[in-house]
């Protein structure tokens, strides 16, 4: 059919109205997004590496904590602790990451980004603000000294539960407690259970009980591979455990991949991070491998140990072209950031709860911001009337004028009191939505928490799961929100 030369070809109108606009909200739900602290262009990334435990492998935290507590209790009782510790209730909801144990007083503390403490527990009892102020504000906390212990992994959460419940139970029974020794005994018991293989054995015996098999994981790895990225695993776990876990997570998950090993080019087990990023030890090839061609590592090769330096030579990867995804702020994220120029992404599985709480409290948070504006205005008024009152007193002004200013002062003060009460009430609602004991993981009041600051400083990206990357292009340019300094607001 011939087209009429006076009629514009319909193709030029494309995209047709209605078809061009998305008909639904196309934004990725907040909980599934990858959050950006520092800009990162995926197009420039050649190698993507993953830690295994709590990164590729997401554990059911409660089941893991109960297992560790059970295995550690047997060892703790063998050290002479009373039998009734078996009978008490261990509330695994108690701890969060980023807590600080004060071994001198048996307290558990949460710090903000300036290492100030506004929240703490002794056993399971909340510590009063005056005590926190006296102990931790008058003198600066030094978290790296032997008096303190920082809880930075999900594996260590059970240490806090065991410690606080044991302090509580022992003191209730009138037993004296050596807070420092108790904590060291607990750590030793848990370490023993890991070292002698009890934890690994129990998990591999019932993988579905402890591991969350994420259906999006295989698709995400495939997407990265299809875009030409090379993938590696770098884990501290030994080979047999790595094989059991990875095989549960990925074998049979995708028709194109005969086994979990086919997703990866290189796997490094028993890596001994964070040491691996510095001196490391000799790199040993474990898998029955063909000789490397052109000095390049063969696909699906498994190694043990080694170091950052040897690894980079092996895979010929240049620092900023490597993105390393891990969950451990110190062993994975901070160390790799300090010792190499690798880019970093942190998996924070608690973001599920953190984001759900945030979304449920948006109204309360908006109201708190309004209150902050009103407070500023009221404080300006207060200053004005106070100055006026002084002037009138000096001038020996008529009583009526002084009374009027006095009444205004009383009104402003009473409004400020009511405002503070409402602010406190809202804070309580918000805190409990995040966590029954500690409030938000990443924030403390309106500051970042000490843990949040570490995430902000060392993780270029963060997300709840590795599969969160699956919603984005493998060439995505991740851009951070602009940070405004107070003078720019
Ligand atoms: Mg890990």
Unreliable residue runs = 1-5, 289-298
CATH topology of the largest domain: Rossmann fold
Instruction: State the CATH architecture of the largest domain.
Output: 3-Layer(aba) Sandwich
Q: How many DSSP-defined strands? A: 20
Decide which structural class fits the backbone: alpha/beta
Described by strand count, sense and barrel closure, the largest sheet is: 9 strands, mixed
Residues in helices, as a percent range: 40-55%
The domain count comes to 3
Q: How much β-strand is present in the residues?
A: 5-15%
**What is the CATH first-level class name of the largest domain?**
Alpha Beta
What is the arithmetic mean of pLDDT? Answer: 91
- In whole angstroms, how far apart are the ends? 62 Å
Strand order of the largest sheet: 1-19-16-15-3-11-12-14-13
Number of helices: 14
> Any idea what the radius of gyration is?
28 Å
Shape: globular
Which superfamily, in CATH terms, is the homologous superfamily of the largest domain? Answer: HAD superfamily/HAD-like
Ligands in the structure?
Answer: magnesium ion
Oligomeric state as shown: single chain
